[in-house]
Amino acid sequence: MQRFANPGKFLRLAAVVQPVAITVLAMSLVLGLILGLVVAPPDYQQGDTVRIMYVHVPAAWMALFVYTVMAVASAVTLIWRHPLAEIAARASAPIGACFTFVALATGSLWGKPMWGTWWVWDARLTSVLVLFFLYVGYIALANAFDDEERGGRAASILALVGFVNVPIIKFSVDWWNTLHQPASVLKIGGPAIDASMLWPLLLMAVAFKAFYVAVLIMRMRAELAERRLRVATLAGAQG
Amino acid sequence: MTRKRRRLYVVAASMLCLGVATALVLLAFQDSIVFFRSPSEIADMKPASGQRLRLGGLVEEKSVRKLADSVTAFRVTDLNKTVEVTYRGILPDLFREGQGVVADGRMNADGVFVASQVLAKHDETYMPKEVAEALKKSGRWQETGPQKMKAKP
Description:
The complex is a heterodimer of chains A (239) and B (153). Chain A is mostly helical and 239 residues long. Helix content of chain A is 77%, strand content 0%. In chain B, 30% of the residues lie in helices and 27% in strands.
């Protein structure tokens, strides 16, 4: 574990991973958008409206994925006092909040033409809204203390407590009856999406994931640089 | 025991307790978390007339009738029980016979469900039109609507 705690090692690794992530992002995003918005066929019952899926579903997956990363990083922060883990969790929160917002907004735009409503308080929609508030609460709490370490610890506990919401979101559509339909891709018996629509969707998922990796590294590098600057300024003021 | 190990156990135990507590709360509130009730459930609970609830199920084949004054009448079924529904207003695009719907409204004294809002519910399958037609032609088409809207056999 301690092997990765070294910021110098992280920065060297980041310098390699980041350009790879940006390349993957550019390629999969262009290809995914062309396939999803132009090449993929309209759905048999939803017509062209189904194309919202190519943004909505990857965003929703990332909302859950980023929160899971945040929760794991928070656990590592609390248990092993791993400084990079805390930076990773802090850096992930705004990205995850944006993914959640995109999922909620595109879901609403999709709900109006298909279901006939912008919003309903069913288990899936409500639990995703709670996820959004958890992200916002994490960001607020992490920055609410003068002592950065205390803020980080309080926010880590919040991130862990909020993690119970992640399985609730995933299984809400199976446990309770909801207006939102059950999972199409990760389901028993294989995806219920035709291959011509599944491939663009998976490409977009790769693009969203690469975007997260690229932006996460960018934010972590900035945070590390800022901390180094603070230490240097402090040392300069004392010396 | 090192401090790291102790913290690991504390975090793991807290998460376990939290998970169990959440599961119990969700189980207790199960009735209020469900978004709609099936015709069979409504038949069992015998709602008082005027009580507001959401009815979910499939629009029964050949049951949709246009009445005067832009009122639509149809039957909602879970293939076990059916409920008569009337609705005044514009129906969603996906509304059709065999489609899943969720209607928000009240039971009147005659046992007719007067809906104030009708929402369409679609299932999780996505496919191009040609594939849907090919499946129908070859007889492998699985009608219809979301599985959850059907009564359990």
